[in-house]
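Reminder to self: tokens first, then the designed residues, so the page reads top to bottom the way the pipeline ran.
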């Protein structure tokens, strides 16, 4: 632990993501397991963000992305304070994809989001589906050398379709947030 006093500053860990809350030391799977099946609100969202950051620090980039998926599945309405502090994590998703060292496993985010979007189930199926397609588009842009899955036959949406669907199914302002990240993913 360094003088800064938060997890992720230890030697050998990946640098902190500026788009996520600093994780408390010692986080593990139990932080999310403590939430019951019906408890997927703002506290769950915040815990997912914090745990994703903790996983990232520990060099678990692929698992950190999966944890951000869980955050994007939280049952939020748009007015929660946590969203003011930590908006829907499109920027964090891009940051992870851009800053994962070559020797750290991240998998293929493009294929992950392609499969995830096409196989989405309830609750809030359409909202979560279009968030996954939004992340798929971000992965295609940020990691253009990553191939899609040619065996997975799916109609891939265009940018305008994703934007319109996020306006329709996302939180207030979410489509604008996603579009800004898509337009300038290198911030």
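Designed residues (187 positions):
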């Amino acid at each position: 632990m360094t003088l800064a006093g938060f997890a992720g500053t230890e030697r050998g860990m990946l640098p902190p993501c500026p788009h996520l809350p600093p994780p408390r030391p010692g986080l593990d799977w139990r932080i999310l397991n403590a939430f019951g099946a019906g408890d997927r609100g703002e506290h769950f969202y915040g815990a997912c963000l914090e745990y994703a950051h903790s996983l990232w620090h520990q060099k678990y980039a692929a698992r950190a992305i999966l944890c951000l998926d869980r955050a994007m599945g939280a049952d939020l309405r748009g007015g929660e304070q946590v969203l003011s502090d930590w908006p829907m994590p499109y920027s964090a998703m891009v940051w992870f994809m851009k800053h994962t060292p070559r020797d750290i496993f991240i998998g293929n985010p493009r294929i992950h989001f392609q499969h995830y979007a096409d196989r989405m189930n309830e609750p809030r199926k359409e909202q979560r589906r279009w968030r996954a397609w939004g992340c798929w588009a971000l992965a295609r842009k940020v990691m253009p050398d990553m191939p899609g899955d040619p065996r997975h036959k799916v109609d891939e949406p265009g940018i305008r379709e994703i934007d319109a669907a996020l306006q329709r199914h996302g939180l207030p302002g979410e489509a604008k947030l996603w579009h800004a990240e898509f337009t300038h993913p290198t911030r």
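The chain has one domain: 30-183.
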